Amino acid sequence: MAMQALSRAYSSDLAWSFRHSWTARISTLLLAVLFLAALLAPLLATQNPYDISQLFLLDSELPPAWAEGGDPRYFLGTDEQARDVYSSILYGLRLSLIVGFASVALAGAIGISLGLLGGFMGGMVDGAIMRVADILLSFPAILVALLVNGIARGILPPDRHADAAIWVLILAIGLTNWVQYARTVRGSTMVERQKEYVQAARINGVSGMGIMVQHILPNVLGPVLVIATINLGMAVLTEATLSFLGVGMPTTQPSLGTLIRIGNEYLFSGIWWVVIFPSIVLVVLVLAVNLLGDWLRDALNPRLR
Questions:
Q1: How far is residue 177's CA from residue 145's CA, in Å, rounded to a whole number?
Q2: Which pTM was predicted?
Q3: Which of 8, 62, 63, 288 would bridge with 30, disulfide CB 3.0–4.6 Å?
């Protein structure tokens, strides 16, 4: 059975498209390398940048190992606090991916649930959900995220801001991006609810919740997968933007955005490596995610087959 399933998966249209798309293969390879680097950060890093006992201020602001004055122990140099830039990137990449995946999961859960409910129920329920979605769409996503972030920080006591920063970011980005899922799922649900299998389920006494979860939901997940893939890159960028503005991850637990903000403060003093290398990693990550999302959108589009 397992071999037959693997054989069917290998011969599927999606697998064929993946094997014949260099964009999909390269982006998947880049993402795999970045994910493994983030996952294995404690093993690959030369130091824990969050552990003050491992930092030596005499090694601060060292250039990359190949530059004049560089130290072989710090391949990409160090920042003003003597943190190894290479190690900081690995740990910062892990935080950025955690925020990205968690916020996409939160946005997907909210958007899919509201989209199913609105598309299936219709009427006032659908109208109320879509009006809230329209209001959120009328504002730039970063402003909504800043608003949610500011409210959450206002509720929490000041001494808890650093500890709760990652959860506040996940909440802010997740509540910003659910609209796309809701609108897409709503449209697909309105089409699916008119089909014969839904009418048959009604006749058989299946409840509305059962029809939405068991019958309609599996048939509307295709577009959601594409949206989730593209939104991962958007979520990482939003986190980096918030951290760059100083309302994201603290300097004691820097993400890629925080590292870029820290490095930007020292850029014109000649310490270019602190901002350049995290920026390159962020660009590669977002570009690979977007390329993979574009390929997935085209591969799942029956009109392009």
A1: 9
A2: 0.86
A3: 288
Give the CA distances from residue 246 to residues 24, 41, 61, 239, 254, in Å, rounded to whole numbers and listed in that order: 35, 24, 22, 11, 11
Rounded distance between C-alpha atoms, residue 233 and residue 15, angstroms? 23
Lookup: tokens for 72: 């072989």
pLDDT score of 104: 92
Asked if 271 contacts 81 with a C-beta cutoff of 8 angstroms, the reply is no
- Asked if 190 and 117 count as a contact pair (C-beta separation under 8 A), the reply is no
Which amino acid, 80?
A: E
CA–CA dist 224, 111 (Å, integer): 10
Cα 144 to chain centroid distance, Å, stands at 17
Helix (H, G, I), strand (E, B) or coil at 84: strand
Cα–Cα dist 283/277, whole Å: 10
**Buried residues in 2-15 as b, exposed as e (16+ CB within 10 A):** eeeeeeeeeeeeee
Say if CB 255 and CB 99 are below 8 A apart. yes
Distances (CA, A) of 160 to 157, 168, 184: 6, 11, 37
User: How does residue 107 score in pLDDT terms, banded at 50, 70 and 90?
Assistant: very high
**Eight-state DSSP code of residue 213:** I
Are the beta carbons of 289 and 93 closer than 8 angstroms?
Answer: no
Please tell me whether residue 8 adopts helix, strand or coil conformation: helix
Model confidence at 77, pLDDT cuts 50, 70, 90, reads confident
Alpha carbons 234 and 180: distance in angstroms, whole number: 12
- DSSP alpha helix (H) spans, 122-195: 123-137, 141-155, 165-192
Query: Do 87 and 155 form a contact (C-beta atoms < 8 A)?
Result: no
Name the one residue in this structure whose structure tokens are 């409210």.
151
Q: Which stretch of 11-20, 58-67, 87-96, 136-145 has the lowest confidence by average pLDDT?
A: 11-20
pLDDT of 271 reads: 83
The CATH architecture to which 21-45+74-304 belongs is: Orthogonal Bundle (1.10)
